[in-house]
Amino acid sequence: MKVYIFVILTNTWNNAQQKRCLTQLNNYNLLYRYYQKQNLIICLIPTGFNDAPQTICNQLAEQLKINNLSLQDFKVIYSPSHSPGANWLNQNITHTQTLSENMGVYGENIINGKIDFLNNLDPLIIIFTLKFSNVDYPEWHKAINSNKATFYDDNLNVFQPINDADKEKIRIAEFKVDNNYTVLFIKENDYDGAKNKKDETKNGINNLLSRILEKWGNSVNKEDIYVAVHALSDYAKDGDVDGFKKEFKDQVNSICNFHHTDDEPLYKQFCGKEGALIKFFEELNKSDGSNKAEDLCNDLIKLIIKISGKDIRDISLLKHQIINYLEPLRVDIDGLIDKNFENKYWDEVSKYWTGEKVEEIFKNVNRVIDDFVAKKNSKKEIKDFVENIKHRINEVEDLFRVSELLNALKNNDKKTAQSICNLHSNIYKKWMDGLISEFENMKSNLE
């Protein structure tokens, strides 16, 4: 049994109630229609509806005389402007967020008795991975040895492998999870993205993903398609990660680039030895009724979304660390300008910053940048950006004579410091604002 709960605007719900096109559940603000042959119940609730889910489940079961109906059969479909109460978004109930305009269409279809659109509601998870060591890359081996999979060859035709030689021909392993999720595991081998290769299969996965989306994605909302690619820079056409993301950004919800390494916590959670991918297969193969593969599908989606924004978070963290070191200098220099370099205040500031203090600031900033470069498996665009930031900080551009000001401060040279600030107001702040602006521009480019 599947129970779909659609959240619609209160006015729309009131109109549906007045038309009596669906049945109201006792005195609850819930309208339903039971499709017995399809083993399906479709419900409409108004925004903010927050009656206890278990009570609603019990009432439906009693009214329709359905045994063993449970909240695990429920799925809530909502949008930011069509949202139920908090009780219906708890972790024990499957819920899917879509676009607000979709919700209006869904409500109208349900009221008019049209349910073909339900085929579009089940999320599609697409995972490109490498057939390699069973120890280092176990997910492909688990996929092709699972009795729950449907297999496809290079032409995306279904076939049943009989022996190990046939298994070599598998390109895609498809898993249907409780009729709510489709998960595809795609073998990347032979689709490397090196330039100047005439063989199409040697020029990246772009065309392969297009064919997959045409076959599996046409009936699925863009907002419900999630793509994860192992080592995307190796398998995107011509190694162009940005081009790959731009090509498919209007066809899918999220695209993430993952690696089999424990150095990055999100990668570890996604594909580590105890990560979501491995747990997915463990749950999928259980036969004791405790299958939680659907929960793992939700985990995979959340991780794909998180990893897809990892570059932005990394850049944000680096900016935060650098600014934290540079900010104390800005505060003191702004204070000197505000107080017109009065002697008492100058004595306090120069006493603190005279000597090695300024150098310590920039040593710490360089250490943070070097750690970032050493630990992050970043693409060329980010590495080039970080190198530019490092150059800007270490050279401390003379456009605003910032380096002269810092030297004057650490050498207790009030006359030079005041002269520079008189000629160039807010000099250090402008220099810092320029750094911050570069970070923000980079984040915009990554979105």
Topology, pairings included?
Elements (H helix, E strand, L loop, with lengths): L1 E7 L1 H10 L3 E2 L6 E5 L4 E7 L6 H12 L9 E5 L15 E4 L2 H12 L12 E6 L8 H7 L5 E3 L11 H4 L4 E6 L3 E7 L18 H12 L7 E6 L1 H4 L5 H8 L5 E5 L6 H7 L4 H9 L8 H16 L1 H29 L4 H11 L3 H19 L4 H16 L6 H9 L3 H10 L3 H20 L1
Helix pairs in contact: 9-11, 10-11, 12-14, 12-18, 14-15, 16-17
Structure, explained:
The chain is α/β, with parallel strands linked by helices and 447 residues long. The protein folds into 3 domains: 2-120; 124-308, no CATH class; 312-446, no CATH class. 48% of the residues lie in helices and 14% in strands. It is built from 18 helices and 12 strands. It has helices spanning 10-19, 53-64, 100-111, 138-144, 164-167, 206-217, 232-235, 241-248, 265-271, 276-284, 293-308, 310-338, 343-353, 357-375, 380-395, 402-410, 414-423, 427-446; strands at residues 2-8, 23-24, 31-35, 40-46, 74-78, 94-97, 124-129, 150-152, 172-177, 181-187, 225-230, 254-258. The chain has a 6-stranded mixed beta sheet with strand order 2-3-4-1-5-6. A 6-stranded mixed beta sheet has the order 8-9-10-7-11-12. Helix 9 (265-271) packs antiparallel against helix 11 and helix 10 packs antiparallel against helix 11. The chain is globular, with a radius of gyration of 29 Å. It starts with a strand and ends with a helix. The relative contact order is 0.07. The model has no long low-confidence stretch (mean pLDDT 85).
Task: Provide a quick synopsis of the model.
This protein has helices spanning 10-19, 53-64, 100-111, 138-144, 164-167, 206-217, 232-235, 241-248, 265-271, 276-284, 293-308, 310-338, 343-353, 357-375, 380-395, 402-410, 414-423, 427-446, and strands at 2-8, 23-24, 31-35, 40-46, 74-78, 94-97, 124-129, 150-152, 172-177, 181-187, 225-230, 254-258.
